[in-house]
Structures are given as C-alpha cells and as structure tokens.
Amino acid sequence: MDGRNRSDVKPGMKVAVILKKDQRTGAKTEGIVKDLLTNSSFHPHGIKVRLEDGQVGRVSDIL
C-alpha cells in the first residue's frame, strides 16, 4: 500500500507524506490523516491529504 489509491487512505491513519516544499528532495513528513483532498480514486503521485497538524501533502507511504 503506497497511498496512490484513495480507497487505501482513511482519516485517522498514520502516513508519511511529501509536502509541496519537499518535492525536490523527497523528504517525508509523518502524521495522522485528517481530510482527503483528492477526489479521484487514483493519483500517480499519491492521494493529497491534510494532516491533523494542518500540513498538506501527497501520501507516499501508509505506516
């Protein structure tokens, strides 16, 4: 499970995301999913989510 299918990502899950500012380096940030922001069922770069601390990024790994 790599976070590219919307059905795999649920609010309350612990995930690693890549924030917009970290896209060049690929640095990952861990957090708990608050909201799913991508409406499509699949996204090649990862489903975009808002973490509970307010940061927004694309899911790279489900922990």
Task: Write structural notes for this entry.
A hairpin with a 4-residue loop joins strand 3 and strand 4. The protein has a single domain, classed as SH3 type barrels (Roll), CATH 2.30.30. Strands 1-2-3-4 form a four-stranded antiparallel β-barrel. Helices cover 0% and strands 40% of the residues. The relative contact order is 0.38. The model has no long low-confidence stretch (mean pLDDT 96). It has no helices and four strands. The chain is mostly beta strands and 63 residues long.
Topology of helices and strands:
Layout: E1 14-19, E2 29-36, E3 48-51, E4 56-62
Antiparallel strand pairs: 1-2, 1-4, 2-3, 3-4
Q: What's this entry about, in short?
A:
The protein has strands at 14-19, 29-36, 48-51, 56-62.
Quick check: average pLDDT? Answer: 96
Shape: globular
Strand/helix succession: EEEE
Q: In CATH, what is the class?
A: Mainly Beta
Could you tell me the CATH topology label.
Answer: SH3 type barrels
Keywords, separated by commas or semicolons:
SH3 type barrels, 63 residues, 4 strands, mainly beta
